[in-house]
Design goal:
It contains 11 helices and 9 strands. α9 packs antiparallel against α10. The mean pLDDT is 96. Pfam families: Acyl-CoA_dh_1, Acyl-CoA_dh_M.
Length: 380
């Protein structure tokens, strides 16, 4: 399957990287997404990480497939392995009832609908960001419905999405709800231009005003929202690492090709140690990232929640890939900062990846707290 995904991305998707169908901030339009997914469906590589019977590949198997889909920034969108849909499908596959799966999961799995995960809230509102416990959006039961009020920010893929997972706080604790989109009770306040341009639908700021959700659209049980978020969190962090490793492998290919062809001072660039060593360092860090992903995937496949391991992997891989992308730009000089290749886009996307699904510093802080607890137990 991974070989088929790679062949599809290289033959069909990469030529579409220059397709002009882009929205106001450079992301592929829904028209382009639909066309790419139709082609992926024909090639038998749509949603390749989920089997026909609805079961998921193991995390180690998923890694092999998602890395290949990431060889183009458009690859995950085309193959339906992109965020937030991939993480949302994982969550619904593990928590949703059969009825909710049929109504909300299946259209996303078939690539017919996009989804959005509504958790993050505006900083100026004092809401949840990297600290979900700050969740301020509220939900209260009223008759046969839940009524939700609040604000959300940086909601990836919201514009054009048909399925929403909304997180809100009730007296029982955090809750998650499935909603049909668009809904007139959810108003887009703005969609900022951001450094990344690979995800359709942007990163919207939203106002939720008396959003009524039928009781049977509560995901799982009331008060277990944070528990369900943890189910989604570790695999979603790891999937980001997989996809962007694929992108950096491609950037390395392009930079190496450039350095082998470009002549300077009487010989190819790669023969100059200043350039050749950068590509060698990239080769080493790409292999380390791959090994880290495989290690974390193995932990998750053993049935562990893997929050610590996924934090470590997210930090190590995102920081390593940032260095890889930066070196690729540097090797290619002026060409590297132009849109002549996808290298400059990969650099921008990886910079955002260091923030998404938890900034590096938050993960390090969490790991340091765990180290302190371990020390306290040992010292005690």
């Amino acid at each position: 399957m991974a070989d088929r995904v790679e062949a599809f991305v290289r033959k069909i998707v990469i030529p579409c990287e220059t397709d002009p169908r882009r929205d106001h901030h450079g992301a592929p339009t829904d028209d382009l997404v639909r066309e790419l997914r139709d082609l992926a469906r024909e090639a038998g590589v749509l949603t390749p990480h989920i089997r026909a019977d609805g079961t998921h590949l193991s995390q180690r198997e998923t890694a092999v497939v998602l890395i290949r889909s990431g060889l183009s920034p458009l690859g995950p969108v085309a193959c339906n392995t992109a965020a937030p849909d991939e993480g949302n499908m994982f969550l619904l596959g593990h928590v949703a009832s059969p009825a909710l799966k049929a109504r909300f999961l299946e259209p996303v799995r078939r690539g017919e609908a996009r989804s959005a995960f509504l958790m993050t809230e505006p900083a100026e509102w004092g809401g949840a960001g990297a600290d979900p416990s700050m969740l301020k959006t509220t939900c209260a039961f009223d008759g046969t419905d839940w009524v939700i009020n609040g604000r959300k920010a940086f909601i990836t893929g919201y514009q054009g999405a048909r399925v929403g997972i909304v997180m809100a706080r009730a007296d029982e604790g955090a809750c998650m709800f499935l909603v049909d989109l668009p809904d007139p009770a959810i108003r887009i306040e703005r969609i900022p231009n951001t450094i990344d341009t690979s995800m359709p639908g942007g990163h919207a700021s939203l106002a939720l005003e008396n959003l009524r959700v039928p009781a049977d659209q509560l995901l799982g049980s009331a008060g277990k929202g944070f528990e369900y978020a943890q189910i989604r969190l570790s695999p979603a962090r790891l999937s980001h690492c997989m996809r962007w490793l694929g992108a950096c492998l491609r950037a390395q290919e392009i930079a190496t090709d450039y350095a082998c062809r470009r002549q300077a001072f009487g010989k190819p660039l790669i023969e100059h140690e200043g350039v050749g060593f950068m590509l060698a360092e990239n080769h080493i860090e790409l292999k380390q990232a791959q090994l880290m992903i495989d290690w974390c995937a193995g932990v998750l496949d053993q049935g562990h929640l893997g929050t610590v391991e996924s934090s470590m992997t997210k930090v190590a891989v995102s920081e390593a890939l940032m260095r890889v992308a930066d070196r690729c730009v540097q090797v290619m000089g002026g060409t590297g900062v132009s849109d002549a290749t996808i290298v400059e886009q990969v650099f921008r996307e990886i910079r955002a990846f260091r923030i998404y699904d938890g900034p590096t510093e938050v993960h390090k802080w969490s790991l340091a707290r765990k180290l302190k607890r371990q020390w306290s137990q040992t010292a005690g």
